[in-house]
Design goal:
Blueprint lengths: L3 E4 L1 H8 L3 H9 L2 E5 H12 L4 H14 L1 E3 L3 H17 L5 H13 L2 E3 L13 E2 L2
Parallel strand pairs: 1-2, 1-4, 2-3, 4-5
Helix pairs in contact: 3-4, 5-6
Length: 129
């Protein structure tokens, strides 16, 4: 299904791992985005791997091919609203995931992830590939 998607870190890892379903879905997407937060998480994976140069090159080529979204004041507003909403539900999630969800809301993107905790966030379009 064509659309505009923000990929969570675990989806990029699956893509790099050669998972067919993720490759297929990304090829059909209208536009693919990554958050600067996910890029940071991916770089952490690169630098903690055994093949730093190879993994860094793969990540840099991928980053060059997609749009990277950075957090700003509007993102922070969404972050605060989401975090408070989850606090009221008694369902906290990691702050990095909150920033990713906030960017997804801010730009009206569907968040693609394999983390189920994102489904607790109101007004967040979520897909799993």
């Amino acid at each position: 299904m064509a659309g505009r998607y923000l990929l969570d870190t675990n989806i990029v890892v699956a893509l790099f791992g050669g998972q067919f379903s993720v490759k297929e879905e990304t090829s059909k997407a209208e536009e693919i985005f990554l958050s600067s937060v996910a890029v940071g998480e991916l770089y952490y994976g690169v630098f903690s791997s055994r093949r730093v140069a190879e993994n860094q090159s793969r990540l840099e080529h991928f980053v060059d091919a997609v749009t990277i979204l950075a957090c700003d004041e509007v993102t922070a507003l969404h972050f605060g609203q989401i975090k408070n909403g989850l606090r009221l539900l008694g369902r906290p999630i990691p702050d990095n995931d909150l920033w990713i969800a906030a960017l997804s809301q801010q730009y009206g993107l569907t968040l693609v992830t394999r983390d189920k905790h994102f489904r607790a966030i109101e007004n967040l379009a979520v897909a799993s590939w």
